Amino acid sequence: MKLRLFTLLLSIPSFFLAQDNKESSVKSEIFSSGSAKVEKFDNNAKKFNDWAISFGGGTAFLHHSDLTSFNKDGNHFGWNTYVGLEKQMSDKFAFILQFQKGETKQTGRLPYKPIHGLGVATTHYNELSLLGDFNFSNLFRRIDNKSPFRWSLHGYAGIGLQGYTYHRKDSHPTQEANRDFTQPFRIDSFFYQGGLGLKYNLSRRLDIESRVMYIITGDDEFDGGGETTDEWPGYNQLIRNGSDNLVVVNVGLSIKLGRHSQHLEWYDANNEAARRLEESNSKYQELVACASGDKDNDGVCDDWDRELNTPPGARVDGSGKALDMDFDGVIDLYDKCVTVPGLPELSGCPRLEEETIVIEEKVEKLESIEFDLNKDVIRPKSFDKLNKVAQIIMKTDANTQFYVIGCTDTRASDAYNLDLSKRRANAVKKYLVDKEGVNPGILVTEGRGEKDLKYPECDPASKCPEWKNEANRRVYFIVK
User: Fold this and answer.
1) In this predicted structure, what is the pLDDT of residue 100?
2) Is 74 left (phi over 0), alpha (psi -120 to 50) or beta?
3) pLDDT computed for residue 443 by the predictor
């Protein structure tokens, strides 16, 4: 059972080291945004010493066993000495590889045994253990504690292997109850230990420490009572227990190794973080926003405002320019058709399909007679406009000539568009003559193809929305 448990405990470190594999170390920046300063950590990057050698000694005594060091037969102190190699992993935790050697002295009196009754035993032991060292002072130290950091409270816990030899002598002169026993130093003889310690930082290189450790041997024969509970004369039957436990009290020194001026054990990371925060606060300078003001009151400071004369009430982007959602050149504040591209003269709205009559000196244009794509068929919605045109023509002087100009968009070839525009102009003339009785002698048709675009930017047609291309497919009138 002990062997299986020991094997399980040995496997625990592999769980903590399992993340250090090729997959997780291919890119060190995998958990970094790139803004953090990431550097390789090696011996040259270390700022603190992290190795130490410790040694010391003190007393040892058995208290939870059949034969004990303190009983009515007197106090029997033993001794112990230790040496350890310490590796500081952080300011709060370290590993210690320790060898300890010692001796315990203990006695036990058998009840109702007039001949054999007082056993005196001595146990010599050797132990090799791995300890975890928890620095409680750094673990629980307040960040606002500015007192000198010279004392530290430690907690220890670990397991190890042991070997021991005991000699028991009975008080009866016949020596029949004397006993010698040796437990070899091997893997199935391991023990547990834990305790507390107090350290004082004497200098950069030296610490003094005291420890109180409780050792659970895991063996009922450690005290010399015997190998089994039924062994004669019965010292192993004094108490019911499966493990003889002892206490060691030590005083020792710790020599800190390394070239740096401070050991990691005495570095208080929390307090250092608070100190740096105070330093940064002391260097803080008040940031004055919008030093140059915001003259147009658009919410964007003049220092980075790209349009310093934004009209009051206009919405702006981050650079201070007035928003134009449909990109038609009319800002949203003045655009009556915010989501539809339009014309500046129509307050940002597209041209409506209505009769437009413009008289400039002797020239009068009548527009918006529209056709289907690639056809000379007049759209029915333009009939009302042609009827109005007919009324205007018949009210004018009989000597006035009306030029019927046909145009197309930029789709198809120039020759095709020129022919199509002529056919459209003739279709309008035919409508006016046949339907409204207009004198054909005053109507002159002309086809201009794609050379007379209402929206010149629509060349090619794919550069414009469809409503602009429809406006380019038209017939208009010039009055002379």
Assistant:
1) 98
2) left
3) 86
Output the CA torsion 82→83→89→95 (10° steps).
-50
Name the pairing type of β-strands 70-71 and 74-75: antiparallel
The single-letter code of the amino acid at 217 is T
Dmax of the chain from CA atoms? 163
Asked if the bond preceding 460 is cis, omega within 30° of 0, the reply is yes
Domain definitions of the chain by residue range: 47-265, 286-350, 353-479
pTM over 0.70: no
Alpha-carbon gap, residue 406 to 417, rounded angstroms: 10
| Core vs surface per residue 80-119: b (16+ CB within 10 A) or e | bbbebebebeebbebbbebebebebbbbbebeeeeebbbb
What is the CATH class of 353-479? alpha beta
pLDDT 10s digits, 419-459: 988 888 898 888 888 877 888 888 888 888 888 888 888 88
State how far the Cα of 197 lies from the Cα of 137, in Å rounded to an integer. Answer: 11
- Two structure tokens written together for 156: 């220890």
CATH code of the domain made up of 47-265: 2.40.160.20
Report the distance separating Cα 176 and Cα 63, nearest Å: 26
Same fold, 47-265 and 353-479: no
The answer to whether 331 touches 324, Cβ cutoff 8 Å, is yes
Q: Which of 265, 38, 316 is nearest to 153 (CA)?
A: 265
Provide the pLDDT for residue 359.
31
What DSSP letter does each residue of 257-326 carry, written as one string? ESSSSSBGGG--HHHHHHHHHHHHHHT-------TT--TT-SSS-TTS-S-TTPPTT--B-TTSPBP-TT
Those residues whose C-beta lies under 8 Å from the C-beta of residue 1, and which sit 6 or more positions away, are none
10 Å CB burial of residue 267 (0-12, 13-18, 19+) is: middle
| Per-residue pLDDT tens over the stretch 206-254 | 999 999 999 999 999 999 998 888 888 888 888 888 899 999 999 999 9
